[in-house]
């Protein structure tokens, strides 16, 4: 019998007002492991009103001194660390990723709360000079009530990436996790409660996107939406939020270039490139899924990548031997398989791995690592975000050509460059239109740095001090000193 979980609204653990639920499925077996409330507009309204009250009465933003906010957030980090193994296991059951990866996610979640707990006592304004007769104060204030809508590929990390800076800035939040992966978001609410976050400051509503996320977009008491997810939903969110001119941060998809120059150290570039495409089952917004390889080293590099992919072991994320888990859902598996079919007709299939043979996993949503080669960047598998373990390898002959190919995409989230020539690496990094560029690496995104995309990969920035700007308003107070 699957657990019937409740959601967290205004300091209480509640069912949906109409009792509706959705099933949570273990993607490695296809079995239902829990049910969570399917929130609707009524539930979201209660959550938003609670968050509004906690914002307006200063429960969190102004009356709770920064040091107290900071202390509570440090306590949240401690609790995440104490529950690390349990949280990691829950994440694996919910989204399928290998346990070692989930542990890494949870460690980063704990650090995010520590990092922004530190910031809570360091947000300050400015006093620009305006002459002897006056004084100007630029003060920072919380934006207010924030709707946080997150996807399923890094469920707890995406939630923390928004919640931690929002809380540090003094905002109150309504978090809407993805319907496929609500379990760790609910645990995060329990951790906030246990750490002493007052009722109404953190609310978690579970449910389907349009029904549970949609009401946040149109609710007049929500000041800001911070969204991570697909480009199309991101556009819908921006259009809808425009009506009330809500503040919006969008972290969307990508089709990131991964460039291997002829002088690259292949012992590093090959595993780095492969992990940058196949890591987290390819369910990564910044996956370097368009792999450009210098024609002079093309054959040996492609062979080495194929050998690497052949060494990937699919299985349950809880099995220590597993290096690639299932995709998150049957829908996502079918979507990715659709792209693989499309690739068979428009490109050359170079490698396709094996699904797990264990009959226990026969109902799981596994897609094996797949490598295509193409001479063109215009094929569908090189243009659209697949969000699965599918690599497209394309040869190039000059720096100018590869920069043009790298930029020939509607996205601009990330890029990776592999070369021993630092001058070429930096020139290429400056020429690629992407928010994050890795040199001789792929995918690191330390909390202290910055994250966000150019072009249709998003609006705004997360991580580091940049994330705080997204949850703060600036106010100018002008004082006439003559009176
Ligand atoms: P999605 O856009 O389908 O869903 C994301 C979230 O939005 C979910 O919580 C969903 O319930 C909610 N949602 C869906 N429709 C909605 C609506 N009409 N109103 C309000 N909320 C709604 O994306 P997904 O499939 O969960 O995630 C995959 C996408 O996320 C990929 O495109 C990936 O690139 C992107 N992503 C981006 C980043 C980044 O940092 N840029 C990180 C992770 C994932």
Automatic annotation (TrEMBL):
The keyword Oxidoreductase applies. Residues 13-477 form the Aldehyde dehydrogenase domain. One of its GO terms (molecular function) is oxidoreductase activity, acting on the aldehyde or oxo group of donors, NAD or NADP as acceptor. SUPFAM superfamilies: ALDH-like. Gene3D superfamilies: Aldehyde Dehydrogenase, Chain A, domain 1, Aldehyde Dehydrogenase, Chain A, domain 2. PROSITE patterns: ALDEHYDE_DEHYDR_CYS, ALDEHYDE_DEHYDR_GLU. Keywords: Oxidoreductase. The keyword Oxidoreductase applies. Belongs to the aldehyde dehydrogenase family. This is Unannotated protein. It comes from freshwater metagenome.
């Amino acid at each position: 019998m699957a657990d019937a979980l409740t959601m967290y609204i205004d300091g209480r653990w509640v069912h949906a007002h109409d009792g509706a639920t959705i099933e949570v499925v273990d993607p490695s077996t296809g079995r239902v492991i829990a049910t969570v409330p399917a929130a609707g507009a009524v539930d979201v309204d209660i959550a938003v009103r609670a968050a509004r009250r906690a914002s307006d009465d200063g429960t969190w933003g102004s009356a709770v001194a920064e040091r107290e906010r900071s202390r509570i957030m440090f306590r949240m980090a401690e609790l995440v660390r104490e529950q690390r193994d349990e949280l990691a296991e829950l994440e694996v059951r919910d989204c399928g990723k290998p346990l070692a990866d989930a542990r890494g996610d949870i460690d980063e979640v704990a650090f995010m709360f520590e990092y922004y707990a530190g910031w809570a006592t360091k947000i300050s304004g400015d006093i620009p000079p305006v002459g002897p007769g006056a004084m100007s104060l630029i003060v920072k204030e919380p934006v207010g009530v924030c709707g946080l809508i997150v996807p399923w590929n890094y469920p707890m990390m995406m939630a923390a990436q928004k919640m931690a800076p929002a809380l540090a800035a003094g905002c109150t939040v309504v978090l809407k996790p993805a319907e496929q992966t609500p379990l760790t978001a609910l645990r995060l609410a329990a951790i906030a409660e246990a750490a002493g976050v007052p009722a109404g400051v953190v609310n978690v509503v579970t449910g389907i996107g349009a029904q549970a996320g949609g009401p946040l977009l149109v609710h007049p008491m929500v000041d800001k939406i911070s969204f991570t997810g697909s480009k199309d939903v991101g556009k819908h969110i921006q259009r809808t939020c425009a009506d009330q001119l809500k503040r919006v941060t969008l972290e969307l998809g990508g089709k990131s270039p991964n460039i291997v120059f002829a002088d690259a150290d292949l012992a590093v570039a090959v595993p780095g490139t492969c992990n940058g495409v196949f890591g987290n089952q390819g369910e990564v917004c910044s996956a370097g899924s368009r792999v450009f390889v210098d024609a002079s080293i093309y054959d040996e590099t492609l062979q080495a990548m194929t050998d690497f992919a052949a060494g990937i072991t699919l299985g349950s994320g809880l099995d220590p031997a597993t290096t690639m888990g299932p995709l998150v859902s049957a829908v996502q598996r079918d979507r990715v398989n659709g792209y693989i079919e499309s690739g068979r007709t428009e490109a050359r299939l170079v490698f396709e791995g094996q699904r797990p043979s264990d009959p226990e996993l026969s109902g799981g949503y596994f897609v094996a690592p797949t490598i295509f080669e193409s001479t063109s960047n215009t094929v569908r598998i090189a243009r659209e975000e697949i969000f699965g373990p599918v690599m497209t390898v394309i040869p190039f002959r000059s720096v100018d050509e590869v920069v043009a190919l790298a930029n020939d995409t509607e996205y601009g989230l990330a890029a990776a460059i592999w070369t021993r020539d630092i001058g070429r690496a930096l020139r290429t990094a400056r020429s690629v239109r992407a928010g994050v560029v890795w040199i001789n690496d792929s995918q690191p995104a330390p909390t202290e740095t910055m994250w966000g995309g150019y072009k249709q990969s998003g609006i705004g920035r997360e991580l580091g001090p940049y994330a705080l700007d997204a949850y703060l308003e600036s106010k100018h107070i002008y004082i006439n000193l003559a009176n």
